[in-house]
Structure formats: C-alpha cells, structure tokens
Amino acid sequence: MKLHEYQSKQLFAQYGIPIPRGKVAATAAEAREVATGLGCPVVIKAQVLVGGRGKAGGIRLARTPEEAEAVAAAVLRMTIKGLPVNRVLVDEAANIRDELYLGMTIDRAARRLAMIASSAGGVDIEEVARTTPEKIVKVHIDPFLGLRDYQARDLAWGIGLAREHWGDFTRIARALYEVFMDSDASLAEINPLALVTNDEGRMTEGEGRSSSPLGPPSSALRLLALDGKIVLDDNALFRHPDLAELRDLSDEAPAETEARLHDLSYVKLSGEIGCMVNGAGLAMATMDTVKMFGAEPANFLDIGGGATAERVAVAFRLILSDPNVKAILINIFGGITRCDEVARGILEGMREVKTNVPMIARLVGTNEEEGRALLQQANFITARTLMEAARKAVEAAREYSG
After folding, report:
1. Short-list 280, 273, 277, CA closest to 294
2. Is residue 227 within 8 Å of 190, Cβ to Cβ?
3. At 396, is the secondary structure helix, strand, or coil?
4. % the chain with pLDDT above 90
5. Contact at 8 Å (CB) between 327 and 397?
C-alpha cells in the first residue's frame, strides 16, 4: 500500500523529521487560501501515486496567491500516467542549495534492512544506481541493534556532507528508521532531503543551487525533507488500522481493489495469458513456464490454499475483466484446496461472466479426477502437467480471434 506524499510527510513530522509548511487542497480556491496563509512563493504538487510528476508538469512554482490558484486549477485537470489528479499539496517554497537522497528498504539478498544515501537527490534512485553507482552509499542494519549513530555518520561522510550537518542528518536518519519499523514499511524515502537556506527569499525548482557537490559549509543551511514516499506491507496492515484508512482507492485498479476485498493476491500485467493458481510460488512458476513458450502472462493471481468456490468465481471474473486475455491457464495443486471445489468455482464464474476465451486447466492433487471430469464436461481443455498446460494455453491464445 502506497501513501501519498502529503501523508508520508505528515508521518515524518510525527517523528521529528523537518518538513516544509504545507496543506492539501482539493480545489483551486482552496489552493489560493493555503498560499495566502503560507505566504508566497509556494509549490503546487500533484498528489498521485506514481513517479515522474515533475517531468509530467505536476510540480510547479507559484509566486502569488492568484498564480497558485491558476496553477492548481491546471494541475487538477491533469492525468498523470493514467491517474487523475484529485488533490494538490501546497508547500512553502524553499531556497535549495543541494539535494540529497535518504531511504530505507529491505535488502533481501543480505537479509537485512538497508539505509541508502546519495549526494544525487531529486531524481529516481534507480537511475542514479544505473548511471552513477559511485554516488550511492549503503549500510545494513542489524535487526537486534537497530540503526547506530556511527552508521548514520558513515552515510553522511560517504556522500560528502559537511560535518556541521552530521548531527541533524543522524537525527533524521534515526527518525526515518523508526518510521520504517513502526509502520511495517517496505520502503521509506526522502527524495530530496535538501540543504536549504534560512533566508526569506525562498525558491525551488532548482533555482539558485550551488554548482559544487554539496556547497560550502554554512550555518545558514538546514536539512529539510521536501518530498516523501512510504510503501506499507499489506500483510501487516491489520496492526495499523489508522494507516489502512489512508488507502486511496481512486488510485488503485478496480480489479486489485476487488481482489483485496476477497483476500486474493492479484496483480495485473500486460500479457495475454490469464493465470489462476493456488500458491505464490506455483503462480511464479506458471508465469515463467508461459514465457518459455513465447507468451506473456496477463496477471499474477494466487487464490490461496483454502479457496472456496465463491472466491474462485471472483478470481475468474477478475481475469476475464482484462480485455487483453486471449486464453486462461488454470493451474491447481489440490492439497488444502480440493480440485473439485475449484472446478465448481470456475463453472460458477462462467455462469456469471459469459466468454468464449479458451480455457486450459491442469488439476493435480485431492479429487483431481472429479475436478477434471467436471471441466471436461464444460468443454475445457485439460492437461496433466504444467508444461503441457502452458503449451496448450499459448497455442490456444495464438488461434483465438475474439
């Protein structure tokens, strides 16, 4: 689950991470009121759960309340990467000297949490890693010890931050670690964590930045979290009902919303072979096997280990809601989930959603013969192995004319 920038920054502020003054507005008139209260210049920032807002024109500077109203009106009419802008964040502008990156994630290869810092803030950290990996510094955090002050200082030294800012940087790093741990996040980042001047001539959008890597040391500079991003672990949301309430359903695919309401793991992809599988590992193997035969999966869908006929029917409808699907591959290993129960769910779903998309089923395990017989009666293509099922699904998709 992703949080909007304004939600992430509000959470940061609760832990003492300094953020600009700002407020969310849903209309252009509200944006003008906020700008008047903050004092201009201000930055108008589209609140959508995708990256690249700046490049798309969703982050703009306004120097007067009237300009803030006009800019907000324009941004609120935008659609960024398919998502409509329903609200904007109006932040006080900052005179940026330099931009840093500070983030936390899970390094699964190292089996540790990792805190990452970079002197190249303000851009995607993935792009920095690809083009200039030497600008990234990383430390791994022992789960029994937590983030130590010396590790934060190592990061500050590694990115060339002036020593006079190490204390503030360490406090922000420790606060970010606490946010990450307390919210059961999978990602928490500040990008940019900016060095800004304390003068009143506030600017943003790259105006007045130093040409040196991190600028000359100056007591007039301070660190400020100008942007924030938090991704929460859905599996831990039951421990955080307050955070779960922050979910923005308007920025979520309707199919994924319905899947979550029925405890199904569903992710829409761009291929043409719809996949319905019980078990995440088996689902990944099924998708890889589809690729072996030269096609692409249309989705990841795990119906779980004890799926009922009702849930299977919901899963079936989710797959068929994708117009790109040209064949459906059903791969069920019947242990807790009985194959005949899955078959009845599939047939129930077929009664609710009429389709002529070819369907290939591989049922193995408990009551597999009964389940296979039910589907054969409904003119399903059946298979006994995953390789056979994937091959038949790809062939059927290529022959499907709609």
Report:
1. 273
2. yes
3. helix
4. 57
5. yes
Tokens of 286: 């099924």
Sheet with 59-62: list strands edge to edge.
22-25, 88-92, 42-46, 59-62
Question: Alpha helix (H) ranges present in 159-215?
Answer: 166-182
Amino acid at 337: T
Report the candidate in 249, 280, 312, 251 with the shortest Cα–Cα distance to residue 79.
251
Separation CA 306–CA 232 (nearest Å):
26
Query: Which 3 state secondary structure label does DSSP give 310?
Result: helix
Considering only CA atoms, give the Rg of the chain.
25
Per-residue three-class SS string for 214-263: CCCCCCCEEEEECCEEEEECHHHHHHCHHHHCCCCHHHCCHHHHHHHHCC
Give the residue from 260, 259, 283, 265 showing the smallest Cα distance to 273.
283
359: left (phi over 0), alpha (psi -120 to 50) or beta: beta
pLDDT digit string, tens, across residues 112-163: 999 999 998 877 788 888 888 888 999 999 999 999 999 999 999 999 999 9
Query: Any idea what the Cα angle at residue 380 is, between residues 374 and 381, rounded to 5°?
Result: 125
Distance CA(2)–CA(25), nearest Å, equals 20
Query: Within 13 Å of residue 323, how many CA atoms lie on the same side as its CB?
Result: 0
Domains and CATH numbers, the chain: 21-92 (3.30.1490.20), 96-244 (3.30.470.20), 253-399 (3.40.50.261)
DSSP state for residue 3 in the 8-state scheme? P
What is the total residue count of the chain? 402
Q: Which residues are catalytic?
A: 101, 189
Given a contact cutoff of 8 angstroms between Cβ atoms, the answer to whether 66 and 9 are in contact is no
Q: Which two tokens stand for residue 211?
A: 């040409």
Residues 89, 286: Cα–Cα separation, whole Å: 43
Alpha helices in 215-308 (DSSP H): 241-244, 254-261, 280-292
Number of C-alpha atoms within 13 angstroms, CB side, residue 386?
A: 17
Q: Which two tokens stand for residue 267?
A: 């992710």
**Phi, psi angle pair for 368, to nearest 5°:** -65, -35
Q: What is the mean pLDDT of the chain?
A: 87
Nearest-angstrom CA–CA distance, 343 and 260 = 22
**Bridge partners, residue 300, by sequence:** 267
The model carries a pTM of: 0.74
Give the Cα separation of 362 and 400 in Å (integer). Answer: 20
CA separation for the pair 193, 170 (Å, rounded): 13
Mean pLDDT value across residues 83-88: 91
| SS3 label, residue 278 | coil
Residue 24 tokens read as: 């969310």
